[in-house]
What we know:
The protein is an alpha/beta fold and 492 residues long. The chain has helices at 2-33, 82-85, 90-94, 102-105, 144-148, 166-175, 185-193, 254-275, 278-301, 308-314, 324-336, 355-379, 450-460; strands spanning 70-77, 129-132, 137-140, 153-160, 203-209, 234-236, 341-347, 386-391, 395-400, 411-414, 418-423, 431-433, 435-436, 443-445, 448-449, 470-472, 475-477. The protein folds into 2 domains: 2-37, no CATH class; 70-251 and 296-490, Alkaline Phosphatase, subunit A. It starts with a helix and ends in a 15-residue tail after the last strand.
Amino acid sequence: MKALEDLKFNATRRHFLSAASLGIGSVALGALLDPSRLFGGPAQAPAGAAPGTTAGGPLTATHLVPRAKRVIYLFQSGGPSQLDLFDDKPLLRTMNGQDLPDSIRKGQRLTGMTAHQKQFPLAGSHFDMARHGQSGAMVSELLPHIASIADKLCFVKSMHTEAINHDPAVTFVQTGSQQAGRPSIGSWLSYGLGSDNANLPAFIVLLSRAREGDQPLYSRLWGSGFLPSQHQGVQFRRGKDPVLYLGDPDGLSADTRRHMLDTFRALEEEQHARVLDPEINARIAQYEMAYRMQTSVPDVMDLASEPQSVIDMYGPEVKTPGTFAANCLLARRLAERDVRFIQLYHQGWDQHGNLPKDIRIMTRSVDQPSAALVKDLEQRGLLEDTLVIWGGEFGRTNYSQGKLTKDNYGRDHHPRAFTLWMAGGGVKAGLTYGETDEFGYNVVRDPVHVHDFQATLMHLLGVEHEQLTFKHQGRRYRLTDVHGHVVKALLA
Length: 492
């Protein structure tokens, strides 16, 4: 008899949960599609979220008063040489060709590409550096346009990381872990802060390259990991179809598409009521976003309304879709439309050999557009609440990889010290922070770890990095793992 009563109880409980799930699923879906219509207020927090976090909608309250609303991250993939661009070391020219002292290297590990070299000849830069602006920031002759805005920039010369090879290093900067599978920065911010534009994704990715043969990039770098999949980055491509599979087939009208989506939504809600899979709701949200993007994407990609003065500001390559210059202008247009996180990946900085020639190619491709983006945002009143970031996954060695000659040298990966710069979004303009030793090998003052950088980025957006978490497989994860502190000296 007791077994029968238990069976009846379990059946009743299953019936209740099944019936209730339809209502719960509808509420969650409503939050994903239009949080403002959910009970007339912000969406409710999903499981695993930090207090105040919502299901893809705005925070009920940010942890802090945000200094920035959005981010444009100009990621220089491959590892730009800080010693040839920003971190001037005259001693390397004086000691050019001499072996790196063991007292400086201190037995630190090397990549497989130079570990078996018998000597590590110091390579002084072939390019002059000078101080610019009232701040006196050091910038290479290769970057005259960036040098012209030196007083608007915040340079961090003491960045360091553990990863020594490209894939784990890029993964680490973008996700907080060297191992693949964690959510990217843009996904975390999409999840925690949502979007201020219902017709565009909160996280958009743009790719470019200035020369062939560089390290590959993988879509998992802008993936959502264990977060709901609508928070993954959406890649915009060059050409007439910037977002794959967004357009309707020939002969399909807008009314027919709308009817299909409504029917699909009803079927998916019915399935969700049976299996309670949150990815079903995420899938519906993605289809609805794609429907709205059919109108919004052509508008943002159309540069016809841009005045010639703006086109000229970004340089001649801005007219070629898919170039870094074109992507910088597109990033500004996306920022105007309140896209939360805009990620540009620019490939070509992995210069193990032939650096003097190749770095000229790279700097020509980024110098004018990078500076133009900062100036363009400022003149439109957007720089104050837009954080612009420029930098790669690690630096380059002070010694030459392979043979050092009078006219040529290369540099291997160097995780112990590298440089990035930021502008706008609440960072201190005209600041140079951190210092490396006279060989440019080790950080000797104010070190900034990758996790510190990530914590500071989130702080600028009003998010406490220790509080924005997601429970996955029994553990609460966050972007900075169990590390990181906000570098308050960088804040304006």
